[in-house]
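[Meeting: bench + compute handoff]

Bench side (C.D.) handed over the final construct sequence. Compute side (W.E.) agreed to return the predicted structure before the next meeting so the bench team could plan truncations. Sequence as handed over:
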Amino acid sequence: MYIKQVIIEGFKSYREQIATEPFSSKVNCVVGANGSGKTNFFHAIRFVLSDLFQNLRSEDRHALLHEGAGHQVLSAFVEIVFDNSDNRIPVDKEEVRLRRTIGLKKDEYFLDGKHITKTEVMNLLESAGFSRSNPYYVVQQGKIASLTLMKDSERLDLLKEIGGTRVYEERRRESLKIMQETGNKRKQIIQVVQYLDERLKELDEEKEELRKYQQLDKQRKSLEYTIYDKELHDARQKLGEVEEARTKVSETSTRMYNSVLEAHEKSKDLDKTYKDLTKDVQGLNKEKESTDKQRSEAIQKRTQLELDDKDLREKMSVNIKAKEDAAKQLEILQREIQDSTEELHKITPLYDEKVIEEKEISKGIMEREKQLSILYQKQGRATQFSSKAARDKWLQKEIDDLERVRSSNMVQEKKLQDEIHQLNAEVKERDIYIDSRKKEIELLQSLISQSRDGFNDYKAQRDKLQDERKSLWGKESELSAEIDKLKTEVVKAEKSLDHATPGDIRRGLNSVRRICREFEIHGVFGPIFELLDCDEKFFTAVEVTAGNSLFHVVVETDEVSTQIIRHLNALKGGRVTFIPLNRVKAPHVAYPQSSDVIPLLKKLKFSPNYTPAFAQVFARTVICRDLDVATRVARTDGLDCITLEGDQVSKKGGMTGGFYDYRRSKLKFMNIIRQNTKSINMKEDELEKVRFKLQEIDQKITELVTEQQKIDAKQAHDRSELEQLKQDILNANKQKESIYKALQKKEKLLADVRTQIEQLKASMAMKQAEMGTDLIDHLTPEEKDLLSRLNPEITDLKDQLITCRTDRIEIETRKAELETNLTTNLVRRKLELEAIISSAETDIWSGEAELKRQELKEAKLLVEDLTQRLKRVSENIDERTKQLRKIKDEKNKLKSLEDNYERTLQDEAKELEQLLSKRNLLLAKQEDYSKKIRELGPLSSDAFDTYKRKSIKELHKMLHKCNEQLQQFSHVNKKALDQYINFTEQREELQKRQAELDAGDEKIRELISVLDQRKDESIERTFKGVARHFREVFSELVQGGHGFLVMMKKKDGDHGDDDHDEDGPREADMEGRVEKYIGVKVKVSFTGQGETQSMKQLSGGQKTVVALTLIFAIQRCDPAPFYLFDEIDAALDPQYRTAVGNMIRRLADMANTQFITTTFRPELVKVADKIYGVTHKNRVSHVNVVSKEDALDFIEHDQSHNTD
């Protein structure tokens, strides 16, 4: 082990950080000018290693800090790097760094960067070989000079220090102090014993008179004792009665208090029940209002359906009756139509005959008038025309005119024929159109019937779905109410859990949840109480066992907990303890095999992943049947035990327990939260399914309603088309009738046109026949005869025509009446009646009536259901109202009980106060008599029963007599016997104590003798070692010389000595003992010849050699790993400097010892392995490695400069 490197910053003259190059493990030399900082460099090393700079005041610390230009240095440090390849320092490293940092208010040590105490540093250095009793591994400036000036006694003290006799001296001083205190106590004891002996002689003379007095006093005490005892017994008896009365009152009060507590708890339960019932009543009232509203709507709907059904029934009844009436009317109408038709059929031929007859008559009249006109024209033509040609020309013109008219009539005839043909075609078209419309009507009626059936099917499906939806609505409402109730219980349990959790822990847990949520931290599983589950009977045992560990948060790794703690500290969010699963291990515990003992961990339910955390908290605890079993298991198996009631017995023997309020159980609240949360989740899932099903049903109902609306719209459209088709048929029939009328008119016009054509043809024939005949002015006889016949015939025919026309008009009027009646009234009425009979409204109304009846039936069932439901709700409300009234009555009873308790409590308090006052009086009386009995002192055995049978009165008389007799002995020392006994006991005790002190004094003297012997042995052993090494070193340093140390004993002090004047004999110590050794004398000879010389006889250089010899001898006795020498060769002659250098070189090579020296001489530089130069500039020191040549040049220059 050796110093490898020194790093300094801010220490004295070393302002900036300097780090020396690695030191040699053997000889190192430091050179530099005076004031450059060599000594400060050595002080820096001693600052870390020695006691020189311990217990520094503020000004001392300030003196060690660098003072110079620039910024003030507030702290400094010195760090020494040791090579520890030999493991001399008990640290498992090859390189050890020891640093000491100092400031105005701090002084700290660091080992390899870790803070350690000063005591640990000193212990570490001692274990490495640095002895506190031998500080000569560091030799600073002036130490050599002080050794040269040492007296013999001081050299002896030095050897004592090196030999470690300080411990013996301290223990010897302590022993002497104890022995002195013991001597003082013995003197005091002897004085007291002498006083006691004198006093006992005086008391012995007073004993006889005292004995008579004591007999009377004994009688007095016996009497007083008996009196006091009787009074005490009476007081105790009365006190017992008072206590019994107080106990009864207390028991009554306790019973009433318990009753009131039970009543209070019951009142709380009743309040809760009252609130629940009130809430139920409110809910039932709402349900009642809703049900009543639904019932009103259902009744309204039922009434509306009843009215609609009644209207439909009336409509159907009216329709059926109308059909029946129409059938009857149709039958009558058909007969009437038949009669009218038959009459029309009869009249029509007659009418036709009359028309023909009228036509024939008109035709005959026209022909005759035409003949008559022709005859008249012929008769007057002779006068009219001048010639036959003129006549023929006129006739031809008339014929042409007639031809044109005939042609026009022919065209009109053709046109009328075409129109008649067209009208016949239109009649056929109308018949075809009517037939097609009738078929369409049949098809539409079939479709309407199918649509009605489809509508009824959809309605049945919708009604079924609506019933299912109503059921689901009820279930949804029930689930929502249950979820709200469970959530309320969860909130209440959470509040109770918060109240049961310490405030800072509660804030901490909330902060952890918020931090994990905000910063998305994973690997946090939650507190223990949230992760475990167990049977309810183990709640108390688990909570008492875990304590605040219930709130410890289980995390995956310690990195997660560190991250959360960092955020938690930043937020100041409370207190949390973490259990990282990667750091904890489940302890292995051997459980006893007994039916009375159950491991608590086995009764807990938790995830296997959390086993280490739960094992850490619960593995060492077992549940025991009772406290006896728990005590036995804790003592024999070393386990913590707990009962189900929460009574604990620790493995160390401690027992705790008492009342545990289960109502504030944190696990109970957590269990409520967990179970209710689970129920909420299940019911919310169920509610979600119900709502999803409701959504599906709503969708299906909407689809069915849409289909119904489509069917309804299609039915309306089909009915509209049906009515339109019927209207089309009616319109077609009307058109057909109008066509028939037009056809008749056309046929009549055609007949008239044809008649005109025939007449025109006859006129043309007559004119053509007249052409070419002779123009005469008279008629032929035949023509005359025809002329005479024509006028009467015309007259007769006109009369016939009038008669025929009158008949024809009558017949025509009747025929027109019949036809008008048939076409306008009877046929139209027949069509109307047939339409009524064949109307589909009955079927439609029948379907609607069936639907209405079904709806009415459902509405009635709904009304009945709602009525029953309303009845049940009302009954529930009445029942809960009764319960509320009952609860109010019970609460009033409980309130009256509490009031009675308050009144009773006041009465009992007064009674107890009276009893307490009486008890206090009796206790005072009891205490007074007990005190008097105690004051009587010790009594003889017969004193307790001698006067026991006497009454109080007799006892008082006897006591009075005894007191009178005792007055005769008033001058007697009443305490003589007691004092005699007391003094005798004290004397014996003091004599015993004196013997103990004598024995202790002897032991202490033996201890001092042993300590003196061991001290002398240590001094002799150290002296022999140092003396031997002194001879060896001196002979090495001084060639041919020799030297040795002489131990001076007490007897040597009487002979003349060179140092006698200085040292003189040692003073006696506090015991009077004279030290065996009084000094160490140095005897040397530098020539090896002649007598030896003492220190006074030597020169300054020789004294330095002797001092160095002593130092090297001490170091050889207690070698150190390295040595620090500060200018030890300053006062040496050259040959001795060379000898010292060679010795250092030899020790470094042979003993592997490191030397760090400072010097102004070349001899040490020449033997050095590594040389360091200290320079000083601007009040700042620096250390650098220099070559041997540069160092020697510097020394030579420095010596020449000093010589100049």
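W.E. noted at the follow-up: Residues 26 and 190 are 70 Å apart (CA to CA). C.D. will use this when planning the next construct.
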